[in-house]
Backbone:
């Protein structure tokens, strides 16, 4: 286990322990004030355990919201504008620090809210942006194409050598006959990018 993973596990453990401990202490204190001591000691322990379980449950919700926030929010949405007659089965979005375009993600990062961005794709089907942001590494990305095309596959990862990019995102959609060509990767992706960009 790496240092980061160990640190996260420690923080999660402390959050859960604090949730149980604080709630247990409050439960015991409440019972003793209501029932008196020592007659209420047993009831105090029982009430403390009950409060502790509730505190543990609330702490678990806090852990989920902190470290697994995607479980509380819909996936980010990318609205893609494509030109008339667009027929590329695989749209390639490259993260290039020198690109002129950018993905400006809008919306709150609070739970139960959705972040969204817009992107225009040229006829070549290759777009470069300075940062993929919310879209990086998201297999559950929601994509809406302006022509009504249906997203049926996504992919991505570190960009291949020679692409002049750091990461890439693939958006796959069925062609006219409903077929889906094999996704380009590695050297084939680099060649596909070069060919489409005319390099």
Residues:
């Amino acid at each position: 286990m790496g240092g980061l993973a160990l640190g996260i596990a420690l923080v999660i453990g402390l959050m859960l322990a604090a949730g149980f401990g604080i709630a247990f202490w409050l439960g015991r204190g409440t019972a003793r004030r209501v029932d008196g001591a020592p007659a209420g000691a047993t009831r105090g322990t029982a009430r403390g355990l009950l409060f502790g379980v509730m505190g543990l449950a609330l702490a678990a919700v806090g852990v989920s919201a902190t470290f697994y926030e995607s479980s509380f929010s819909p996936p980010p949405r990318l609205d893609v504008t494509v030109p008339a007659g667009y027929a590329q089965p695989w749209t390639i979005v490259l993260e290039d620090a020198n690109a002129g375009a950018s993905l400006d993600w809008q919306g709150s990062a609070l739970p139960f809210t959705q972040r969204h961005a817009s992107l225009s794709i040229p006829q070549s089907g290759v777009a470069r942006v300075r940062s993929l942001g919310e879209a990086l590494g998201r297999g559950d990305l929601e994509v809406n194409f302006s022509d009504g095309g249906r997203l049926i596959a996504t992919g991505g990862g570190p960009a291949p050598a020679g692409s002049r990019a750091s990461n890439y995102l693939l958006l796959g959609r069925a062609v006219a006959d409903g077929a889906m060509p094999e996704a380009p990767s590695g050297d084939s992706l680099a060649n596909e990018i070069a060919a489409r960009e005319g390099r």
User: Anything to note?
Assistant: Strands lie at 77-81, 90-95, 116-120, 126-129, 142-145, 151-158, 167-173.
